[in-house]
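Supplementary Text 2. Reproducibility record for the structural model of the 424-residue chain.

All settings were left at their defaults, and a single model was retained for analysis rather than an ensemble. We include the record here because the model underlies the residue-level annotations in Supplementary Table 4.
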Amino acid sequence: MKETVKASEVAKDASSEMPFFVRSSKFRHVYGSPVRDDQYYKNINITKNAHDATFCAVNPKFLAVVTEAAGGGAFLVLPLSQTGRIDINHPRVTGHRGPVLDIKWNPFNDNEIASCSDDGTVKIWHIPDAGLEENLDEWLVALHGHQRRVGFLEWHPTAENLLLSAGFDHQCILWNVERAEPVSIVTCHRDNIQGMTWSKDGALFATTCKDKLLRVVDPRSARVAVCCKGHQGPKSSKVLFLGDNQHLLTTGFSRTSERQFAVWDVRDVSKPLKMEGIDSSSGVLFPFYDCDTHVLFIAGKGDGNIRYYEMVEDRPYFHYLSEYKSSSPQRGLGECLLVSLPRPAGMMPKRGTDVTKCEIVRFFKLHASDGICEPISMIVPRKVGGHRACHVLAVGDLPGGHLPRHGRGDAVADRGRVAEWAEP
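Retained model, structure tokens:
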């Protein structure tokens, strides 16, 4: 009996010395809220292309979705307010001779969108404020320079009229869109480029490649600043900057085909700061990051769920928050974030989301088999922080630099941060 009492006393003393700790966070209770059925975009002939892209882009005015097309490539552009069933003969952008592989809205012009295609070209299009009334086959600018199909596009986040393209000729080309000519050509890759992203200020861009190397490139000199081994699995890998020029996040596969993501410090890439396994599914992981709220979202192609994490500067570098679950697999995913740079496929500036509902992110989920685009809002509960949880300084919609300064090698200024969303 005495030993039992002593053991209980020891346990009591140990528990008093190790109190239970719950980490404080505004975003610990973020949840996904799908819209009503009448707010879906229905009857869309979504592309069946096997390319590892999101096939969806969105801004405060329009939603763009890559579609199936006979004898060429096309994508659909809809005003955000045009929900419900879409006419099968709705006008589309039809100027490419091959399937469209990626689309990106200009961050400084809501009526301008870039597209790239199997035909080896990059084209810039102007969309009228009222949307398309007939098929659009006349482009503003056509950029010719890649020798094979072009797989990915990224607008420069701070300088106007700069566009980065990556092709299956293993080249990245930085374009002066206004003059329709290349500013620099990066030829360091030895295999197909699988993903790319700009740093927040546009001073660097990072790429992942089929040769399993992670590279950080200086676009002014067209030279590799940092190179290291990335994910060693056989499938596609993606990359993004975590709000500054010092940390990267990559998603990919291990040698045993386990899906994983990793955080890297650009100053020392000998090994990742932390690598986390997720599961053994086969779908490519697409990361989305809000650098204002520091919340990372990871969605897998063919998955029905979206995981989200809160990123921190020190160990353990991220904290798992929760996940949005659905029984319908996603074909692609566009995103409206409370931030506008850098933005992988479909991010929207703060002016495109509803902060009065404490919405920090809105995803546009492409259903694999039903021809549906479903908006999903990520919401911070009011009891946790109310409107103020969403009210961070936002990125402006005006460029902070111009091409002549960039071309001389000067650092491009960061876009102004505005506080116009300080109160609902």
